[in-house]
Structures are given as structure tokens and as C-alpha cells.
Amino acid sequence: MSREGLASLSGLAGGPFLWAASTQLGQILPYSECESGLKVLVPIVFAACLISLTFAGWSWSSAHFAHDARAREHRRSPVFLSRLGGMMSLTFALALLFQAFGSTLLDGCQR
Description:
3 helices; elongated
């Protein structure tokens, strides 16, 4: 797999995977947070948001390189997939950010 393909795949799959993992942790960790009093979910969700933004930037920037390499071939699908991956990862980063803000409002015992 080429570097452009890996970058577009990371944008397409990275954000949704991080969001799904964060959602599952959001169902499990509040019980241990309530017992211990230690907030671990909020830093995990913020880190997942930053990783998703990194995936978005990597995928979006690979569209430029894919466009330059295939300008003579008139193929637009690698550019489309890279930009779609960037936008999808940005969308899931926004969802992760909202989830992190929701986790800061309620502690583990209130959920």
C-alpha cells in the first residue's frame, strides 16, 4: 500500500475507530471513576480527539501529493478519498470534543 493510500485510509477509518473506542470506554469507565474518584475518561477522550485531528491533517495533506503525482493521468479518486478521509476524521474529532465536554460536566457518580 502506498503512503497516500495509507493516509486516506487513516482518515477514513481512524476517526470512527477512535470515536467507537471512546464511546465504549464512556460506558465502562464511569463506574471505576465513581469508586476511585480519579477522572481518567476526560484525558483519554481529549487525546483521542487530538489523534483524530492528526489523522485528518495527514489525510488532507496527502491529497496534495496525490494530486501532483497523478496530474497527468486525470485520476481524481485518490484526491477525493484523501479529502473525504480528512473531512470524516474532522467530523469525528468534533464528536469526540463534544463527548469530552459532556464528560467534564458530569462526573462518574452522576452518570
